[in-house]
Structures are given as structure tokens and as C-alpha cells.
Description:
Two copies of one chain form a homodimer.
Chain A: E1 2-8, E2 11-16, E3 28-36, H1 42-45, E4 55-56, E5 61-68, E6 80-83, E7 86-87, H2 93-96, E8 107-108, E9 126-129, H3 132-135, E10 137-138, H4 148-153, H5 157-167, E11 175-179, H6 183-194, E12 199-203, H7 207-215, E13 220-222, H8 226-236, E14 242-247, H9 252-261, E15 262-270, H10 282-288, E16 291-294, H11 299-311, E17 323-326, H12 330-338, E18 345-348
Parallel strand pairs in A: 11-12, 11-14, 12-13, 14-15, 15-16, 17-18
Antiparallel strand pairs in A: 1-2, 1-4, 3-5, 3-9, 3-18, 5-6, 6-10, 7-8
Amino acid sequence: MRATMIYGPRDIRVEDADEPTLALPTDAVVRVVAACVCGSDLWPYRGVQPTPAPHPIGHEFVGLVEAVGEEVGTVKVGDFVIAPFAISDGTCPHCRNGITTSCTELRWWGSQDSAGLVTQGGQGDMVRVPLADGTLVALPGQPAADLVPSLLTLSDVMCTGHHAASSARVGPGSTVAVVGDGAVGLCAVLAARRLGAERVVAMSRHQARQDLALEFGATDIVTERGEAGAARVRQIFGGVGADAVLECVGTKESMQQSLDCTRPGGFVGYVGVPAGGPELPIGQMFSNNLNVAGGVAPARAYIPELLGDVLERRIAPGRVFDLELPLEEAPEAYAAMDARRAIKVLLRP
Amino acid sequence: MRATMIYGPRDIRVEDADEPTLALPTDAVVRVVAACVCGSDLWPYRGVQPTPAPHPIGHEFVGLVEAVGEEVGTVKVGDFVIAPFAISDGTCPHCRNGITTSCTELRWWGSQDSAGLVTQGGQGDMVRVPLADGTLVALPGQPAADLVPSLLTLSDVMCTGHHAASSARVGPGSTVAVVGDGAVGLCAVLAARRLGAERVVAMSRHQARQDLALEFGATDIVTERGEAGAARVRQIFGGVGADAVLECVGTKESMQQSLDCTRPGGFVGYVGVPAGGPELPIGQMFSNNLNVAGGVAPARAYIPELLGDVLERRIAPGRVFDLELPLEEAPEAYAAMDARRAIKVLLRP
């Protein structure tokens, strides 16, 4: 089979690899139907994160089950499945609390499972899925082909945008601002509207992303950043700020901008992976009753809730894919996202 | 009249002062029935906060209305009133959002009101109350004398403890840990149980405070601090930590202890005034979905909800007062709290 590997900064290769087989009775083997490149994949691509040794890459995929171990009960051969970006057992206390990304057996694609066995990355032909019952979500039947991109977003970005909105308690009538116009930020706009937000400000200075934000239900676009952007958001919301600000970037500047947009008593829902560890200014938070909630999205826990809306075409988060390439062109997929020529790239094995 | 003044570190004096009169049509004048010393009053007392010039002190009092301005509609002469620790108008967007401590007219006792006029401190015979409709809460009648201490806690510490519990989403069945065994921490224990918490760990190494925590409904006492204390709390809660941790101290160490006690997906409800600005470790928060909510308690907004439980004797937060002194002995009240000889001291003019 073919698999995407990262060797180091700007060195992505698609190579031959061994086909996975069942190794444990709780495994499934999945043939990938579609995968994609994540904004966080760009970190090692750009050299911001080191790549000490070449390894398989990719953590978002959907596919068809080819084999299941004898202890697997919730997915069967032939099922179309969504794989969230993390492996979890579904039974530990954290999974039962809905925080599947704190699972005691938590592991990542392209690394090792909790038994110490190799797992494949998502950007390849096939993947061995450890703890298949806890990790995978099977569809009730085979999806229409045009739904595949939206189903694929449930592996990460749509669930992550939803986590931002849900953590920030977005509900009917909420006023919202979204910081970040990547795929997660755009999905956060969609998620906020889905939860009933009345007004959603998308902060973006890129025409294509502004257009998609508006299509996803944004009511206002703010192009300014930093304090100027925050001042504009506060002005839009009667001088007091937004009930909920969805932080989908992860830098110190974006977190500060988010706090500055939030009304006293409001929430920052944050899902941007903290880059360089921006510490939070508790003095400002305390004085203004600014609340901060979020973290690594427990995508697995959200898929069942969001899946119905995708299958019934009430939401189409797959619109974030503005480029589709064959798996063999994975290097170009990375280059396009790195140069912001594409919002998010879908790969077909 | 007599009023308590702070001149500098460990220099508290009770002095003659002018009696206040109505200055604005939105004013009331209140004769103080009971006041008290706050943990935060100890900051200037200890010299941690500077006292550039002598000024009246005290921000917690209950009393009887002696006069009202012609625009005051919700309190009348003779009413028994509770004054929260901050002045607010009750009509601005922040007050309508329930965050009265972000009121656009927010001012503090013993300083100046938003019209630039002097206000008295709470530790004195009489106080002019600006924005009386927004600030004061009148009781339906005259309270029994033994209820006065509990009513007095509604000016600050009981509402602040409730804010910690409410911000941390404590509800029926919650598991809770409380960091801090001062009056606020003890009230947080009471507030958590009032909201339905199933198990509440009080972290304290002082016998009298442990006893009161147990009386307020704590189910467990942990005497260890720091990582050892957090490890003990996690052990008590099945190795995963508490749903809600109520941070009632405000130091970097106490916030870290609180985060370390919290289960993934749980909340730190924080009301400890940040001392020295402990920044929050967003990397730890992100990885574990630790949420942080709270701030300066909007006491005014909570008084109506809590008042009924005090009047109907379902809660007795006044038990935090373990020393009662005449107003003239205010210096001894400060000394007793500073030396931790008393949890909280009630002053009677």
C-alpha cells in the first residue's frame, strides 16, 4: 500500500508501506476512502515542531472496514466509518465523562498504540485501528459520495469548531466572535449558528475565507486584528463585547484578542493548539469575569451528535475543502496549505 | 459619628467623622447595624497593598435606611438593607447581564462615587449609598437578631463562595474540592452543598476551620497542600480528580493546586483575588480540557437568590464569624484576623 511520510521540514513523501493486519482482538483494519491535511500537520512541515525520525502522518480519515478482531462489537466488515483524530477506548472514566481526548489509553495515529504496536497515519491506503469500538463511529449505511467531505470533517475540524462553541456555552440568541479563519474557525462559525447564535462575527482578511464564513452563517466580517479588531467587535456588540469568543488559532496574540472581544461574564472557547504556551492574564480575567473553556476537542464524543445533521444535509462543513488531490500528490497538498493557496486539502487514495 | 480609617500597615484607627447626608436624588443614607473585616482588608493592613493616604475602610455592612433621595424607588426609610461590596446601578448592560461588578458606574466603598462625591467605608456608624436602587437589597421586614450575621455574609463572602461554585457549574451529584479555608472557602463549601454537590473535599490544616467546613457539609478533609494535596484529592475522586474545584485564595500556588485537582473537562471556579498575577498555564489547561471561570463576584446579583435560604434558615453562613467586637475595637479585629486567631470578625457600631 501507499502511505504519506514526513521526513522533516518541507519533506513529505508518499511511499510503499506494509499493509496493516489485525494485531489485537480489539482492532479493526480500515481502507481509507478520504483523508486530509490538518493545520497542525503544518507545524512539523514548517519545522516549528521537530521531526526526529521519519514517520507516517495524517490523523483525519474516513473509510470502509476490511476486517475486525473478535472482540469488536460496534463496527463490522463493510461499514463506512469515521475515525476521530485520537484513539480512545470509550470505557475509561474520562471517556465516560465525554473527554475522550483524556482517555487513559489515548494514542495518536502514526505512532504506537497503548500495546506498543505501530499504527499507520491517516494519509495512506489502509490503517489498523486499535480499540475500534471506542475509536470508530460507523454510519447506519453507505453515504452518498458527495457527503464524504462533510463526513471527513467530523474526524477533526467540525468537531473542534463545535467544541469551541459548546465550551463557550453558545446557545439560542448568543452573540459570538470567531478568531481564526482556518478550517476550524470556519467550522466554529457553522457550529455557533447551528447552536442558535443570533449574530456571529468572523474575523478574517481573506476574501475566500470571508465568503465561506458568510455561507456558514456569519453575520459580520471584521478585518482588523489585535486591539483594533477587538474594539470593532465590542462596538458591534453594543460596546460590551460578545457573549462567546471562539479562539481557533492558539497564539498569545489571538488569545489576547479573544479575551479583549469578550463581554464581562462571557466565555472564550479555545481550541487553538497553544503555540509557544501563551499564559493567560488572570488579572484581566478576574476583573472582568472572563471565563476560559475548551482544549483538545473530544471529537469522538461529538460525532454522534453532529453526524445526523451531516447525513440530513442540515450542515455542510465539507465546504472547507477547496482543493482535492490524489494521495500521491500529498506533498503538493502540504505546499498549498502552507502557502494559504488552499483552506484545507482532501486526499483520495 | 465614628468611622474606621486605615493610615498604613497595621495602623487602623476609629475616629470621629462627619455624618453623611443625601447628596444626590439616587442616594440613600444607611445606619450600620453590623459590619465586618474582609480578608482583602488585610492586604493594605499587612502593607502588601500601599495606603498612599489615610482613608475610610470596610466594604461589608447591613443596616437600616435613615433617608432616601427622591428618585429612590426600591428602598424606603426604616428598611433593613444588605449592601454588597460594590456600588452598581442595576441598569447598565453589564448589570443586566448579571455582572454587577462590571457596572459602568462601578465604585467602591470608602472612595468616590461616579459623581466624584466621597463615600464612607462600611466599618462605621453611617454610610451614604449612591445608586441606592441598584446597590441595596431591602428585606421584606425586620430580621430576627440572630440572623444578622448570616445576612451580613451576603454582602460578600457567601455570595463570593456561591460565585465560585456557580461558575464551576456545581450541581446535583458534583464532586468538589475547595482550596482555601478562609471565610470565602468555607462559604464555598456551603454553597457547593446547597447546589447539590455529592461530595465536597475541604483542604485545610486548621482544626477550627476543618470543624466549620464539616458543619457546612464538607464530606472529606485534606490537610496536604500543593501536589501532595492534589494527589490526595485525585485519589479520593477515583484517580481522575474533582468535577469542580473552588479556588478561594488567589496565589499562583493555590491556582496550580486547583488545576491539579480538577478532572479533565472539569472547572476551576476562581474567586481568590489574584495576588501577584499568577498567569494560567494554558498548555496544561489545553491538554486536559481544564476550564477556568469566575472573577470578582457579582454579589448584588446573587443576594436575592441566597436571601430566602438565609431567612428560612436553610443555610447559616454567619457561622464564619467566630469573633464579635464593638466598632471601637476595629484595630483588634484586624489584629485577630491577621494572626488567624479569628476566621472573620463582626463589628457592631
